[in-house]
Amino acid sequence: MPPKTVFSSEKNPRGIPKAPFVADVEEWIGGADGEVEGTLQSFQDALAKYRYMDGNLTQRRQNLEEKIPDIKKTLDMVEHLQERREGKSKASEDDMDDMDDLDEDDGPQKPLKTTFELNDTLFAEAELEETDTVYLWLGANVMLSYKLPAAVALLTSKLEAAQMSLDNTVEDLEFLREQLTIMEVNTARVYNWDVKRRRERREREEALNASQRH
Q: What pLDDT digit, counting tens, does each position of 15-54 carry?
């Protein structure tokens, strides 16, 4: 009798199948004389698949945990540029009729100075000109220019999507580890059941042989 299919039709929201809990080993393998080798092999195959998924999701989690701070940092800078530009425009409008009353401290905003990364350990200082456009890396060596409001909207959308993906990945990892635990318990239960069955068979054979000698 072929072993039962391990993965059930029940799945989590991302399609990871739920592992069954083998409450009755004898029923699962098809009776008291059922073979356990096929069942144990199917359990090992299921464990290997779960571990493969766990490895992939762990890598995805690490990538997202590195990516999200970079998106946040870029978004903060673009928002700062937008607020700075909007503040300057508002100040220009409000003070249009009061230019004669401005003192030296109310003059033009000082240029914005910042640092940018050349490589992992080297940064350079830069002075930013007044601008309403930024250039964003989109991946695959692609860079596009965006007006500040469009850049804020794009980065906000990317940040929300990345955060949702991270939340789903963490949830999937927790689900996977529960399934791994269940399959490890199932494997131990079947193995121990088989050990007990072999011992009982040996004891019956020894008792039968002893009775026949007498």
A: 999 999 999 999 999 888 889 999 999 999 999 999 999 9
pLDDT at 38: 92
Enclosing H/E stretch for 142: strand 142-147
Secondary structure percentages of the chain, helix, strand, coil, to 5: 65, 15, 20
Q: What amino acid occupies position 18?
A: K
Give whole-number Cα distances, 176 to 5, 20, 48, 59, 170, in Å: 18, 13, 12, 14, 10
The set of long-range contacts for 156-161, using a CB threshold of 8 Å and a minimum separation of 24, is: 156/75, 158/71, 159/68, 159/71, 159/72, 159/75
Query: Which residue is associated with the tokens 């009353």?
Result: 101
Closest CA to 26 of 8, 41, 39: 39
- Distance, CA of 175 to chain centre: 12
* pLDDT band of 57, cuts 50, 70, 90: very high
Angle at 167 between CA 166 and CA 168, to 5 degrees: 90
> In Å, what is the CA distance from 62 to each residue of 56, 69, 127?
10, 12, 33
Asked if 127 contacts 113 with a C-beta cutoff of 8 angstroms, the reply is: yes
Hey, how many other C-beta atoms are within 10 angstroms of the C-beta on 53?
A: 19
